Amino acid sequence: MTISSILPVDRFLLTLDIVSREGGHLAYSWNRLYQRQVIDVTWVNSLETHPELAERVEAFISRFGRMQDTIADKLLPRWLMALAETPGSQIETLNRAERLGIIENVEHWLEARKLRNKLVHEYMESAETFAEDLMLGKEYALMLLDSFNRLREFAAVRMGIEEAQLPKPLRL
Asked: Residues with Cβ < 8 Å from 15, sequence gap 6 or more?
């Protein structure tokens, strides 16, 4: 059986499980990066002499981007297909997810997408900007975890999927 031959709800659940694992990794990186230090210009400048901190930053950025991509590109469209809806463009899918209470604010999702691109492609051009972007990333990562939990709750309550079939909620 190939993934394309399974029912839309099963495909959604498989993707939900993948996002759950990605979210677990993101939560781990979030805790390691944000719980014990203040991220500011001085901290960013110290990354050159503290490679273990730089690795934490890289892990967070990678996991943030991966989870965001998987939710927007795969999970939300597969969720709509499981609801017997036809997903449209990404913005249409995000708008539908907002209307159904899965994401809180489409504009924030779009800002998080821009931030992901900045963190990946403009890494460390300015210590001040990078510190600000990392602090935005802290908040947008929480938004991703919250969106997963909202979608998981929707699946249980509104789609009638049994708890045993769903991954656990994501916590920090």
From this structure: 70, 74, 75, 78
3-state helix, strand, coil in the chain (%, to 5): 75, 0, 25
Q: Which residues contact 153 (CB under 8 A, 6 or more apart)?
A: 169
CA 113 – CA 115 distance, rounded (Å): 5
**What does the alpha-carbon distance between residue 59 and residue 55 come to, in Å, rounded to a whole number?**
6
Contact 143, 14 (CB under 8 A): no
pTM above 0.90, yes or no: yes
Span between the terminal Cα atoms of the chain, in Å: 36
Distance CA 65, CA 141 (A): 9
List per-residue pLDDT tens for the chain, 172 residues long.
455 668 999 999 999 999 999 999 999 999 999 998 899 999 999 999 999 999 999 999 999 999 999 999 999 999 999 999 999 999 999 999 999 999 999 999 999 999 998 998 777 789 999 999 999 999 999 999 999 999 999 999 999 999 999 999 999 9
Task: Please report which residue ranges of 46-126 form alpha helices under DSSP H.
Answer: 51-70, 76-82, 90-99, 106-121
Token reading at 124:
């460390």
